User: What shape does this take?
Amino acid sequence: MSTLKDALTSALGENVTLRDAQYPNSVISCTVPKEKFVDAAKTMKKAFALLAAEWATDESPMGRGFGVYACYRWGAEYLIVKTEISVDDPTFPSLTKQFVPAYRFERQIKSLMGITPAGHPDPRPWIKFEDWPEDAWPLRKSFDPSKPMSRVKGEYQWIKADGEGVYEIPVGPVHAGIIEPGHFRFQAVGETVINLEGRLGYVHKGIEKRFESLSWHEGARLAARVSGDTTVAHVLAYCMAMESMAGCNPPERALWLRALFLERERIANHLGDLGAICNDAAFAFMLYQMMRLKEMLMRTNHKLFGHRFIMDKVIPGGVAVDIGPEGKSEIYNEMDYLSKEFEKLVAIYDENSSLEDRVRDTGILSAEMARELCVVGIVARASGLNLDCRIFNPFPPYGQYERLKLDVPVLVTGDVHARAWVRVLEVRESIRLIRWLLVNLPGGAIACPETMPEPGSAGFAAVEGWRGEIIYWLQAGLKGEINRCMVRDPSSVNWLGLEQSIHGNIVPDFPLCNKSYNQSYSGHDL
Amino acid sequence: MIKILLQILRTGIVTEPLPPAGEPGIIGSGIKEPCIIEPEIKEIGTKLEEAIRKRFRRSLTIRQVDAGSCNGCELEIHAINNPIYNCERFGIHFTASPRFADMLLVTGPVTHNMEIALQRTYNATPTPKLVVAVGDCGCNGGIFGTSYASLGGIDKVIPVDAYISGCPPTPVDLLNGILKAIR
Ligand code: SF4
Assistant: This one.
């Protein structure tokens, strides 16, 4: 029973062909003819679905042309609509008019795969810089990734604002702090920002292409390095997609330990962000207090699991480290200490009126805009959208809702404060979860033998990382190798939210607003 | 306000006080933090302070450049600034502009798209300058290797004086590597 599938088949009838070999079976995948691709999107829009991702594949090794895929989400359902594109006419109808996030996805498809979205309002490349050779489409199978690329002449066309008193502030790619590179251009009148345009792609390392030359096992190491701050969630999504294609079911204990790692990663990053948000409002006290607590978590990770970020500890088939009784009691004590200290700091945050003055009503992303942009994760939950894969697309233990009773905070104001407060509430909940996981942790093995994905199949997984929903879509080739690995970090959609939030705010509030989003550059640029 | 002051007092000084190796860390009013002090810090810290005093007149100014990292290395560079490692006490400062920098701390395999920006940052840094390549990526491209998009290490683009391997290197590795570079 799938609402989205029913909506699609009743609207498009015979034009919809269901596809098999897409795992897990709960994710429905179908093919529609190219001329019905937009109709499918319209139907999805009417059914209140959101666009989760859009990507393209080169299926020439399978004797086909290109494939363009759009993945829609409605509550707990995911539906993938594919359309096949012939090599002679590499165009597909654009979905930008139906779903705003398609704006970036499609520019990316055009830049990296060389298929043109017909009817797209913006012909500029994305991630691909203007100094790449015109025909450098790295995701095509005919492209040789091992050769260095030459540079050609070209210039990015920025959106311009004219008028009396309008001036422009360019920032980046090398920013003032210790952060990732990206370029932002503000058009401002006096102190007020009237437009912000981001340009990303500086850290494009060719990750998606790289996957295609790696074994499944090495792929997990690469997935762990897509975005270093979210290493657990990324590799987890990769492993879950792969395991679904390989019919591999990790033991119960492994799944619980994965959840433990995921929640520890969430707490650590949220602590860091809360500190950094306050610091950008000139409240350095909070930064140092939060960093102190974060460092404590990092050290415990290192001591118990062998890595400060728990990198490479989630592996295909399970996890690589176990936890003993001393480890459990150590984390238990740590959580007690953390919880006590954290509450004191939250009280200080809450009562500080000068801080409040900066964070309230700053950088608002309205609920309507959040829906329109299909944002995910903390950003969505601060703007009234109730999305969390731990509820809607859970793996055990999250699936045992009756026992776990996971509480997902959703706020409505959509300002910097809301994004900070969602984090506060999530830290509390994660502390509770970790305690619960430790008490109820089932026994048994921590990994099962790794099995290989079925040739020609595709796998999908969505995991709630600390930023939000991370999607991996894997496709195995005819020999069972990785033919395509699509990565959708939450930042790929949430960057659009930041650009909208800043409208009408003053320039000095940008860093604050940016911190409250804290998007990944690496996860976006790939 | 009173709560802030109380919290500051209660927290006390959490910076690793360079104690004998392996002693449990103590926080302000005697609450035991569930982690132990890293014994290496004592040794490295003392040497770092000495080298910076002698060679940089007490102040080593660093500009960090991300040339395509996954952000893992950045998190650890942040960590050496946290109150536990507190690298400022050895005289290490991070600056916003390469024009004030003695040292560039560069992460990532150098992406095709960052190559020019990295070169410009290098040129903007006054000589004499030191370049330290951070992380497996910075040393040799790491898992991203050499490809159309990744140049495979900092020394493919600018001269490098010291390498800090690790994925990511721990804060202790970082301090050690910086020490190696300035000695
Ligand atoms: S060395 Fe490791 S942690 Fe550092 S940027 Fe490279 S992949 Fe990320």
Remarks:
- Residues 38-182 of chain B form a domain with the Rossmann fold fold (CATH 3.40.50.12280).
- Chain B touches chain A through 57 residues (CB under 8 Å).
